[in-house]
Amino acid sequence: MSSSEPSTNPADLVILGGGSGGYAAAFRAAELGMSVVLIERDKVGGTCLHRGCIPTKALLHAAEVADSAREGEQFGVKTTLAGIDMAGVNSYKDGVVGRLYKGLQGLVKARKVTYVEGEGRLVSPTAVQVGDQTYEGRHVLLATGSYARSLPGLEIDGHRVITSDHALRLERVPASVIVLGGGVIGCEFASVWKSFGAEVTIVEALPHLVPLEDESSSKLLERAFRKRKIGFELGSRFSGVEKTDNGVKVSLENGKAIEAELLLVAVGRGPVSEGLGYEENGVPTDRGFVVVDELCQTSVPTISAVGDLIPTLQLAHVGFGEGILVAERLAGLPVVPIDYAGVP
Question: What CATH number has the domain spanning 11-50+91-148+270-342?
Answer without folding.
Answer: 3.50.50.60
